[in-house]
C-alpha cells in the first residue's frame, strides 16, 4: 500500500484523473506493472553499473566528510596505487604522512559549504561547493618554506578529477565541431577553428547559450578593436613565411640542378678513368712485349732486332708515363667532385629541415 501511495504521489494530474476513472482491479494491474518496470530498471542498473568497482568505492575519500574517517588514509593509498605510472614508490610511501596532516588540518567550512538556508517548508538546506573548488583551496596551502603542503595528494586528486564520466562530452564536442565546419568553411585553419570553438564555449558558459546574455566588458571591446590589426599581422606573417618558402624552393631547385650536374661530371670522369686504365694496360703489355723481344735479340746477338725492341720499350714507357699523369689528374678531379657533391647534399638537407620548420610555422599562423 505504501508503494502504491509513493507512485501515485508522483503521477501527473492527467494520469491521476485517468486512474480515478478506472476500476480497482485495473488500478491494481497498473501499479503491479509499474512495479515490474521499476524492478526491471533496477536489475538492469545493478547489472551494468560498476557497483562493485573497488576504485570507485575508494574515491569516496575525496569527499570532505571522509577526511577524518579512520580508513580514509588506506583508501587514498589504494587510489594512488591504482593510477598507473603516476607515483614513484617514494611518493606512495609519502601518502599516509600527507593524509594524516590533511586529516588534522583546520579546514574552513566555507571551502565546501556554499550556502545554508531554510526552504519554504522550514527545512534546513545546505548547498555545497563543487569538489574541485574544495581541493583547490586545500592545495593552495603551503609550508613555512613556501612549498606546497600536499604535493602527492595534489597529483592523485588532479588525475582523478580529470577522468571523464562518460563519452557524452566528447561526442557533443564532435557534433559542435561538425556544425562549425560547414561546407563553406572547409579551408579554415586550426587557430580559426579553435577561435570559433572558444567563442561557442564562451557563449554557452557566460550567456547560457544565448549571445545577448553574454556580459560586455571593456576587455572584450578592446579585443574586438584589436581583431583587425591582429588579422593583418597574421596575414603579414603568413606572407613572410610563404616568401621564405618560395626562396627556399628556388634554392632547393638550384641545388638539385647542381647535384645533377655534379653526378653527370662524376659519371663522365669514371668512364674516362676506365678508358685510361684500359690504355695503361695496353701500354704495359707493349713494354712487356718489347722486353721479351730484347731478351731474345740479345740471346741471338741480333743487333737490328735489339734496336727495334728497345724502341718499342721506349714508346711503351712514354705511353705509360703519359697515361699515369692523366689518371692522377682525373682521379683528383673525381675526388674534388665527390667532395662538392657531399657538401651540396648536406646543404640540401639543411634547407629541407628549414623548410619543414617553416611549413610548421606557416600552419600555426592562423
Write the topology of this structure:
Layout: H1 2-9, H2 13-21, H3 24-48, H4 54-58, H5 72-82, H6 89-103, E1 113-118, E2 124-128, H7 131-139, H8 151-161, H9 168-180, H10 190-207, H11 218-300, H12 303-363
Antiparallel strand pairs: 1-2
Comma- or semicolon-separated keywords:
single chain, 366 residues, two-stranded antiparallel ribbon, 73% helix, 3% strand, disordered N terminus
Tell me about this structure.
- With 366 residues, the chain is mostly helical.
- It has four domains: 2-48; 54-161, no CATH class; 168-215, no CATH class; 237-363, Orthogonal Bundle (Helix Hairpins).
- It contains twelve helices and two strands; from the N terminus they run ααααααββαααααα.
- The protein has helices at residues 2-9, 13-21, 24-48, 54-58, 72-82, 89-103, 131-139, 151-161, 168-180, 190-207, 218-300, 303-363; strands spanning 113-118, 124-128.
- It has a two-stranded antiparallel ribbon.
- The relative contact order is 0.05.
Strand content: under 5%
Q: Give me the strand/helix succession.
A: HHHHHHEEHHHHHH
> Kindly, what is the distance between the CA atoms of the first and last residues, rounded to a whole number of angstroms?
67 Å
C-alpha geometry:
elongated
Order of strands side by side in the largest beta sheet? 1-2
CATH hierarchy: architecture of the largest domain: Orthogonal Bundle
Can I get a quick summary?
This protein has 366 residues and is mostly helical.
